[in-house]
Sequence to fold (84 residues):
Amino acid sequence: MVDPPLVRICDLAGRPRGAGFLADDRGTVVTSHEAVDGLGRVVLHAPGGATCVVGPESVRALPGADLALVHTEGLGGAPLPVGA
Fold:
């Protein structure tokens, strides 16, 4: 069975905030703005078990599009293929 390509997003206390997906091979995760809004640090859990904690300097909020880009290192995995 193949793990779903979603990245779980939590706060430091482990409370789920949302999900996202790996968008490129540089570790960029795309998620909703509300998943990261107001958090000082974000914890990301990849399908293979890798975990990454990032601070606000790694989050680019795009509230007008209700999206956020989270720059990570060490999550591994392949980006989600997106078709046109």
Residues 30 and 69 are 5 Å apart (CA to CA).
